[in-house]
């Protein structure tokens, strides 16, 4: 089991300011969808409430994916959920540099 808030905070270390986020969980057994949204122009209080909403544990091991979502940063980079055979993680993404052939 893993705590969703702690996992996200570890992925946010040394990153740009969070611009917005949309994270959701799917519980297939209970047929339930839960969403967690941090909107553009959010306040520190809204960020705190968003992080508190993620203070839960989930099974991040093999089987099926439970946690989905995206976190956008002010510098244009973002996090997305990675998954392979049910094993999950946050993946850091950045737009690649434009190659010389395109200049």
What does this structure look like?
- This protein has 103 residues and is α+β, with helices and mostly antiparallel strands.
- The protein has one domain.
- 18% of the residues lie in helices and 41% in strands.
- The protein contains two helices and seven strands; from the N terminus they run βαββαββββ.
- The chain has helices at 4-12, 44-53; strands at residues 2-3, 18-27, 32-38, 57-58, 67-73, 78-84, 87-93.
- The strands form two sheets. Strands 3-2-5-6-7 form a five-stranded antiparallel sheet, with helices on one face.
- A hairpin with a 4-residue loop joins strand 5 and strand 6.
- The model has no long low-confidence stretch (mean pLDDT 89).
Mean pLDDT: 89
Task: Compute the separation of the termini in Å.
Answer: 48 Å
User: Tell me, what's the shape?
Assistant: globular
Write down the domain tally.
1
Total beta strand runs: 7
Number of helices: 2
How would you characterize the largest beta sheet? 5 strands, antiparallel
Structural class: alpha+beta
Low-confidence stretches: none
Write down the secondary-structure element order. Answer: EHEEHEEEE
Biggest sheet strand order reads: 3-2-5-6-7
């Amino acid at each position: 089991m893993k705590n969703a808030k702690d996992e996200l905070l570890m992925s946010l270390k040394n990153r740009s300011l969070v611009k917005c986020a949309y994270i959701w969980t799917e519980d297939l057994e209970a047929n339930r969808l839960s969403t967690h949204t941090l909107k553009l122009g959010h306040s520190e209080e809204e960020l705190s409430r968003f992080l508190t909403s993620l203070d839960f544990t989930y099974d991040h091991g093999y089987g099926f994916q439970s946690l989905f979502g995206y976190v956008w940063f002010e510098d244009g980079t973002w996090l997305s959920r990675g998954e392979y055979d049910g094993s999950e993680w946050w993946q850091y993404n950045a737009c690649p540099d434009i190659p010389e052939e395109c200049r």
